[in-house]
Each structure stands twice: as structure tokens, then as C-alpha cells.
């Protein structure tokens, strides 16, 4: 933030206006190789070598977990498309079998949007959570 503020010199009013009205995209520097976290909305117009879209689960995409926050299915489909087309080289779409949201566990199924992707374009990979062993003899213990 300090480097960002240097662009404004002594003009504190302009600096405060920019940080209060601006978005994370206003400070995006594409020449830097770093991980950038953003919403699908914020990714519009940008491109990245590699894109991860996490939470491709029914209830999250399209969003329908809470009745008071319903969204348009077509708008959600369009947003996923926008996110997918941000990838120049690699695109990863991930989903979980269960997820904790606001302290409540939800059993999840894949987003129905994923079923519309042509099968020949998909390479599936499955990852399983494995509990760590109580004691791993190969690891150096720091606090014994």
C-alpha cells in the first residue's frame, strides 16, 4: 500500500478517494508474476496464464445457498464463462464434496454448469484428503 500511495504525493484527498471507490483491479500489475485472488466479476477484461476457479459446486455456482440471496442462472453461467475465458494456457475448475460455510457443513455436488463442458476438453483429477499420521519417524521433531 505504501508504494501505491507514493503515486499521489501530498494529495491525500485523491488517495483516499481512490482507495475508497477503487477496486483491487485498479492496483493490478500484470507484469508481476504473483498469485492474484479476485472475484469472477473483477476478472472481466483481464487474462492470465493460469486460472483456478474454485467452488464449482451446485449452490455456489450457480449461487443458491440462501433463499434471500438468489441470483439469475443465466448471469451465473455467463460469469463462469467469463472466468474460464480469462485463462490463456491453463484452466483448473475445482469442487469439493463437502464444505463448511458460516459454521454449517454442506454436502456438495458438482455444479451443473460443468456438465455442459465438452468431454474431450476435460482432464479429470481426483484428490483425497488424508489424515496425517500421529507420529512420522522421518520428520525431524523441533520441540521435543
> What average pLDDT do the residues reach?
80
Give the CA-based shape.
Answer: extended
The amount of helix comes to 10-25%
Give helix and strand order, one letter per element, not per position. Answer: HHEHEEE
For the record, the CATH architecture of the largest domain stands as 3-Layer(aba) Sandwich
Content of β-strand: 5-15%
Structural class: alpha+beta
The strand line-up of the biggest sheet is: 1-2
- For the record, the count of structural domains works out to 2
Q: What is the name of the CATH class of the largest domain?
A: Alpha Beta
Report low-confidence residues grouped into runs of 5 or more: none
Any idea what the CATH superfamily of the largest domain is called? P-loop containing nucleotide triphosphate hydrolases
Number of strands: 4
- At CATH level 3, the topology of the largest domain is Rossmann fold
List the total number of helices.
Answer: 3
Cα-atom radius of gyration? 20 Å
Query: Terminal Cα separation, in Å?
Result: 41 Å
Amino acid at each position: 500500500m505504501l508504494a501505491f500511495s507514493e503515486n499521489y504525493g501530498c494529495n491525500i484527498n485523491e488517495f483516499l478517494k481512490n482507495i475508497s471507490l477503487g477496486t483491487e483491479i485498479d492496483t493490478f500489475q500484470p507484469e508481476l508474476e504473483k498469485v492474484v485472488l479476485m472475484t469472477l466479476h473483477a476478472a472481466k477484461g483481464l487474462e492470465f496464464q493460469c486460472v483456478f476457479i474454485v467452488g464449482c459446486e451446485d449452490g455456489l455456482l450457480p449461487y443458491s445457498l440462501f433463499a434471500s440471496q438468489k441470483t439469475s442462472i443465466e448471469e451465473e453461467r455467463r460469469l463462469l464463462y467469463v472466468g474460464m475465458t480469462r485463462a490463456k494456457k491453463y484452466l483448473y475448475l475445482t469442487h469439493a464434496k463437502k464444505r463448511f460455510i458460516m459454521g454449517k457443513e454442506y454436502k456438495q455436488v458438482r455444479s451443473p454448469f460443468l456438465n455442459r463442458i465438452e468431454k474431450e476438453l476435460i482432464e479429470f483429477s481426483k484428490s483425497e484428503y488424508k489424515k496425517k499420521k500421529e507420529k512420522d519417524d522421518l520428520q525431524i521433531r523441533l520441540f521435543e
